Amino acid sequence: MANPEYLFLLVLLPVLAVLIWSYLKWRRNVQSQFSSSRFFNRFFPETNHGAQLVPYLFLTVFLLIIVALSNIVGGKELEKNRQSVQSVMFVLDISNSMNAQDVSSSRLAQARNIVSQTLDAMAAHRVGLVVFAGEARSVMPLTSDYVAAESYVQAIESEVIKRQGTDFLKAVEESVKKFKSVPKGARHIVLLSDGEDNEGNANEALALAKKEGIKITSVGIGSDEGAPVPEFLFGQLMGYKVDRSGSTVLSSRETQALQSIASGTGGNYIDGNNLEYAAELLVQEIQNSKGGASLWVENQNSIRYYQFFIGGAILILLVIFVAFPKNPLNY
């Protein structure tokens, strides 16, 4: 990762240059006062004219170190490795209850951030994206284009699907369609949800996943105590969901349901309320999955140039101390 903030230190270079120039001018003025004195040669012995460049060489060293710290990145280099490639479908619950604000800015925002951090730590695996509420929709098929995946993830809102509810069966059915080219046993779903099963078909979803050789890792988001469900109109908060009696509805995370879905397919349950912890465990879960295809994978690595600037700085310092071994700062 580049560190462009260090480039702001470059504003110090003109200041240092002016200070050096002022010092050298002051020193020449002092020397000129002794120019007619018979002690001049004793106080100011003749020096190599090249020594006048020493302060500016130190400025150049300072410049090179700043550029090295900024860690300039440019271009790409291809690296081929043989590795096990997993096919992972991220399945996001975008029902209204995911707008509850008991985690982060909302449960849905937490889910998006978990997926984003997981993508940042993954390499070469194929990923897809399905969203669901009362129905399911494929947002992105399996791909290794993580930049596109990231843009799709961050654009997801609960308004994408109009029919509300939480239909786990439809989510699995939609994922199965996208897994057609993936052999059974190499299919992996990451389910991010608060676990509320409005349709009551979690068992059917589990049975279908087992039949299709799909491993499900479930990530539970939301508090066990529950939180009110916001209702928005054109992006504006209009109030909170109420039941028929007018009481505010509290939506809580159904941890047990999510645990059952995961364990029934050989997967694990992850508490998604801690962003960094959840993303780290999720990456480990994906990397440790078995059954992925063994393929030659091309990875694009950024080319970094900091070592050339560090090398240049060291070379200049060596020249200074070799050419002026006594005291290079005193010339």
TrEMBL record:
Keywords: Cell membrane, Membrane, Transmembrane, Transmembrane helix. The keyword Transmembrane applies. The chain crosses the membrane at residues 7-24, 53-73, 305-324. The keyword Chaperone does not apply. InterPro entries: UPF0353/GerABKA_families (IPR050768), VWF_A (IPR002035), vWFA_dom_sf (IPR036465). It comes from Planobacterium oryzisoli. Residues 87-265 form the VWFA domain. This is VWA domain-containing protein.
